[in-house]
Amino acid sequence: MGTIFEDSPLGLGVWLIALWMLCNCRNGVSSYEIARATGIAQKSAWFVLQRLRFVLKEIKPAMMGESGTPVEMDETFIGGKPKNMHRSKRLKQRIGMNGYAEKTAVLGCWSGVLVKFAQR
Fold it and tell me: What Cα–Cα distance (Å) separates residue 78 from each residue in 99, 100, 102, 104, 109?
């Protein structure tokens, strides 16, 4: 409750793609680009961008760490390369030669004392 995603008929994937494009495009991003990338209407993309820009213009963002301590984050992917597996094991797991979809993403956060792990 109280988020920009509230009462939105659009999926979270559309919001995250738009947020990624908005944060990573050096010269900004238009609603037409968002509409093309996500497959939604231009009017919906404009609405998404307006909400995201409103949230991102906050002057004093809150810190993630306890009492302003820095937080370190790192991610890795766990799983063997398909080219190093025996053919029967690859067929059993139904992995193609690129095989990166079958890896497990692991994210770790460290804020001084407390260690937290999240696995997808």
Answer: 12, 10, 9, 5, 17
Q: What is the residue type of 72?
A: E
Tokens representing 19 are 């947020």
b (16+ CB within 10 A) / e for 71-93: eeeeeeeeeeebeeeeeeebeee
pLDDT digits (tens, 9 = 90+) for 59-112: 666 666 666 677 777 888 777 777 777 888 777 776 655 555 567 778 777 666
pLDDT above 90 as % of the chain: 18
d(CA 92, CA 115): 35
Asked if residues 34 and 44 have their Cβ atoms less than 8 Å apart, the reply is: no
pTM for this model (two decimals): 0.51
- CA torsion, points 108, 109, 115, 119, in degrees to nearest 10? -30
Distance, CA of 119 to CA of 112 (rounded, Å): 21
